[in-house]
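for the writeup, i need someone to sanity check this before i put it in the appendix. the sequnce is what the collaborator sent (i think, or maybe the updated version? ugh). structure was predicted straight from it, no edits. if anything looks off just tell me and ill rerun, i have time this weekend
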Amino acid sequence: MKTSIPCPQCNKAITLQDFEDFSSPFTMKCPHCKAKLKETRVTPFLLLLAVAMIPLFIFLAETVKNYLSGILPVIEKIPTSIVFLGVLYPVYALYERFNGLIMFNKGNLQLKKKQ
């Protein structure tokens, strides 16, 4: 497994921790030279995976909400998104870490063209 990727502009190392600190795969900047980066190899596949994961996350949140409403009836009045964030956020965090690892190990970083 790789531990760093060179920046296409300044050739300084971008580490896995830097990848985890990016707010999204669409707003990546080199931590050294601040050049805007884009990933071209795996991002389309990760977007397709996200489209498949959204219904799964909704289903899981509804299932957990229904289960918990049998224990605490108040949960029926809480929005599903709040239940998801409160109970299933660790699952979402693992999914995001998985995306970051794939992008880091299999991705192809390029500079974004200025418009």
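The longest helix spans residues 43-71. The longest strand covers residues 36-39.
thx in advance!!
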